[in-house]
Design brief:
Leucine-rich repeat, LRR (right-handed beta-alpha superhelix), three-stranded parallel sheet, 1 helix, 3 strands, globular
Length: 76
Amino acid sequence: RGLESSLRVLILSYNFISILPRAVFSPLSELVHLDLAGNNLLDIEPDLFIQGPLRLASLNLADNLFTNIPYHELTP
């Protein structure tokens, strides 16, 4: 709480994350770099990035458990 309008880099790598709730990153309006590498993600919810962050320039999803690359969910 309190970082929503100023957080630019969020590193959540290697935290055993398996699920990301819908629009969980939406309040982070200034987020530019998001690192989710090395977690247990199997898929990406279709609405994960639907409402932002609008300035996201880099997203690291390396070393997760994807069976395919979720291009459609990442497009917005």
